[in-house]
Write a structure and sequence with these properties.
single chain; 287 residues; mainly alpha
Length: 287
Amino acid sequence: MALRRTVSELLSNYCCKCASLSSNSVFYEATRRYPTFINQDYESQQRQEASNNEPESAKSRYDFLYPGHIQSSLLQKSLLSVGSAGMAILDPSRDDMIATLGETTGHYALQRIRHKMMQDPVGRQILEEQPVINTKTLDLDYLRSLPNDSFGKHYCNFLDKNGFSPDARLPVSFVDDVDLAYVMLRYRQIHDLVHTVCGMKPNMLGEVAVKWVEALQTGLPMCVFGALFGPVRFGPRWRGKYVSTYLPWAIRNGYNAKFLMTVYYEKQWETPIDQLRAELKIDPPPD
């Protein structure tokens, strides 16, 4: 019973924290460096707003390493992993549970991702500059004005058609390392860009295909989980299409494509989408 209370408290406090922070989109933006790029007045304001809705017992766990960080033990992370995995299976639209699963299980994979990024000149530049993707850093009107075959126009069309916003990605909370927290944030914020460059729709079929690419490239347990268990929800028509076409496409590109975490997407807006796919060794989408 005590374990259930611990899980319930952490999940409740996490959802409360996300709700209080999401109104300002991703709060990692002032000077783009952990931990000094947060304006102190802004940070104090966020802490005060978040603390108004938090029980006293939870306040000491927040903002321990960086704004938004929730300190948790190995046992608590394990319980959160199991609970969030179960809830994600029951309701795949719960991006907060998927985010929690990724953060509580991804420590060693994030270390490997960061190491691979450091070995690549562009990846190292991304880690040094720590760009963020939200409506304050993107000029969406400019992207809409680009040629129809450009990567930037395809990305903006993807957002507009599906009613998505770059601000929708949740901040990082359960990663107990400042540098790895940015790696997780970057992975999360480029997800729609990966969808765009792969030409995958944000339906279950497209999501599972992208999860296979991400799983093979990053090794994040959350991606492996999504790739393996996502197809359980497929109907007969999608299952046949997945096995015959999408799964082979995803595995081939997961192994052969350039490491997508080392792509500085913000510098590729004007690049024709077919040219970018060729440079990244990504096959054209199945349909």
